Amino acid sequence: MAPEAAGGRVRIAPAKINLALHVTGRRPDGYHALDTLAVFASEGDRLAVGPAGDRLALTVEGPFSALAPAGEDNLVIRAARSLAAALGRPAEAAIRLEKNLPAGAGFGGGSADAAAALLALNDLWAAALPGEELAALALGLGADVPMCLAGRALRARGVGERLAALGSWPALPVVLVWPGRTVA
């Protein structure tokens, strides 16, 4: 059965576009300190989650599926396990990820997928975990995940965890180009 059937949830994991990115330093843990303005495209990967009995299963499909890991290294699986652990419940879900964004292209695809998984599973599992707790889990998955969890025009500082919404932002035409190799 498809994950979106039988009470499942579907989320778009939109491409993250940095309109301005200033690296302000390097931290002892290897992360770069930054100051960035980011917006999100209307297009991206598509994530569907649904009940799966007593297992956690991820299927990766789509034009860029060959570039994305399907196992435990995928941020979607890590997000599901992180949320389940925070809730004290088993990680049980069928997840289908349609990769429309190339991995490592600098569009935040994996981070957006992890954020979409946190939101969709929080809803599927009727957890109602508050936004601050989801943001803490998101940061544990990667520096871009909190930005992608917010999913709106914002300014991010630190490693990406200090977020400030930019309010309403006009629609902008954007052309995303991928050179056929990883850049992020």
From TrEMBL:
Q: Which Pfam families match?
A: GHMP_kinases_N (PF00288)
Its lineage reads: Bacteria, Pseudomonadati, Pseudomonadota, Alphaproteobacteria, Hyphomicrobiales
UniProt-listed InterPro entries:
GHMP_kinase_N_dom, Ribosomal_Su5_D2-typ_SF, Ribsml_uS5_D2-typ_fold_subgr
* Record key words, sorted: ATP-binding, Kinase, Nucleotide-binding, Transferase
Q: What is this protein called?
A: 4-(Cytidine 5'-diphospho)-2-C-methyl-D-erythritol kinase
Tell me if Cell membrane is a UniProt keyword of this record. no
Q: What class of enzyme is it?
A: transferase
Gene Ontology terms, MF aspect: 4-(cytidine 5'-diphospho)-2-C-methyl-D-erythritol kinase activity; ATP binding
Q: Which EC number(s) are documented for this chain?
A: 2.7.1.148
Domain GHMP kinase N-terminal per the UniProt entry, residue ranges: 74-151
